[in-house]
Amino acid sequence: MKKRVTLFAGHYGSGKTNLALNYARELKARCTCPVAIADLDIVNPYFRTKDFAERLASEGIELVVSEYANSNVDFPAMPAKAYSLFADRELSVVVDVGGDDRGALALGRYVEDLKKEDNYEMVGVINASRPLTSTPEDTLEALREIEQASSLKITALANNTNLGPKTDADVVISSLSYAEKVSKLMGVPILMTTCPKQIEPSLRGKVHNLFPVDILPLYYHLQG
Fold first, then answer.
1. What pTM, to 2 d.p., does this model score?
2. What pLDDT score was predicted for residue 213?
3. DSSP alpha helix (H) spans, the chain
């Protein structure tokens, strides 16, 4: 059973913003309930949900983001609307928490409301193709730092190992043992393993809880 609030947190470069956007769009396509996405990412000013505001609006997804998005101002100010997202029990909310432990600090003001309702999933986004999280042990350390900074425990994992447009079936399959080791170390299940939509047919039936995603081109353009 899906939780009302789904939070995506991970180390910088894990791809959590791309995943959060895809998850919100998939959620809206599959349910009749209103869906919103909140961008609490104050670490990365370059790839933000705000870049896709028009697309989200056209799909009926509400976006709540700091007025400082798409600027170089590292300021965690969020509009008052963000508080109502967690209070409105009829709304399904996807949250892009922020990169690493510093980004997770912005979540602090909402923690008590989240714990009180107790209807959330805190998804740790992991990516073996990033230098600082290439081993299960390094990934565990990064996730523990996020838990400490956010005051929330990670409840599930999203294996988002990818090489951007160069991701093929071998990249995804070779990451499964890594994700399973992280799952054992953390003591939480793997909620999903992502893959670019174009290679889904080659992975169907081979990967449990496969979640195909659009890899939004702006991300790799700006990172390249």
1. 0.88
2. 95
3. 16-30, 53-58, 81-87, 100-104, 111-117, 136-150, 169-174, 176-186, 200-203, 217-223
